[in-house]
């Protein structure tokens, strides 16, 4: 599929414009930071895109205000008693210094125990926790990707995990699927929604009627899951401050 990607400034907003071989223009505002994206037919010029965005400025600003109002996790210092999220639940951090193996484990349903080498600073502690997060998310995603690929009649795609600043997931034109590592802090039903959403894009690239029909057919409560995903606390890419 032929595509053309560029950015426009409209009404004080930066708009990502992706032109592809589609029939209708689609405008979306995406979590976690309210990124504005327009998917437009190849023949639609910049002036027509600007006009479409201007006509939706009120709606765009309301959507962005919702994202701004979300609870955001404060910068992490990686010290005892600090809150960290895992699969939608909040845990209190307990740090234990040891010269043995650095490990992370859950204790009593309320604490995450982090064993690190003596003198490890906040960045080193975060890296240990991040490795555990990545391993846990891989365990969550593997069965889900296999299950939903089969349900949708797809070959199991290549998929990977990384931090992403503006998306919970994405898929490339070549069929590779990426998942945001921050998903490990979200409830399991939200993780499943993102898996279904991205795999559905392997059948339908845009967010038009056919894409919505696919989600309605295979995951009827996807709108509720999406809403839950977007109201749970946002997290930092490095765990030590900043926004995802």
Just name the CATH architecture of the largest domain: 2-Layer Sandwich
Count of helices? 6
- Biggest sheet overview: 4 strands, mixed
The helix/strand series, from N terminus to C terminus, equals EEEEHHEEEEHEEEHHH
What is the overall shape? globular
CATH H-tier superfamily of the largest domain: Metalloproteases ("zincins"), catalytic domain
Number of domains: 2
Amino- and carboxy-terminal Cα gap: 30 Å
Using only C-alpha atoms, the radius of gyration works out to 20 Å
Helix percentage: 25-40%
Uncertain parts: 238-244
* CATH domain class of the largest domain: Alpha Beta
Average pLDDT level: 87
Strand order of the largest sheet: 1-2-4-3
Could you tell me the strand content as a percent range? 25-35%
Structural class: alpha/beta
Q: Kindly report the CATH topology of the largest domain.
A: Zincin-like
The strand count comes to: 11
Description:
- By secondary structure, the protein is of the alpha/beta class.
- It has 2 domains: 3-69, no CATH class; 83-231, Metalloproteases ("zincins"), catalytic domain (Zincin-like).
- Helix content is 35%, strand content 26%.
- It is built from 6 helices and 11 strands.
- The protein has helices at 46-55, 57-69, 122-151, 188-200, 209-218, 222-231, and strands spanning 3-10, 13-20, 26-30, 35-41, 83-86, 89-97, 103-107, 111-116, 159-162, 169-171, 177-180.
- The strands form 3 sheets. Strands 1-2-4-3 form a 4-stranded mixed beta sheet. Strands 5-6-8-7 form a 4-stranded mixed beta sheet, with helices on one face.
- Strand 1 and strand 2 (13-20) form a beta hairpin.
- The chain is globular, with a radius of gyration of 20 Å.
- The relative contact order is 0.14.
- Residues 238-244 have low confidence and may be disordered.
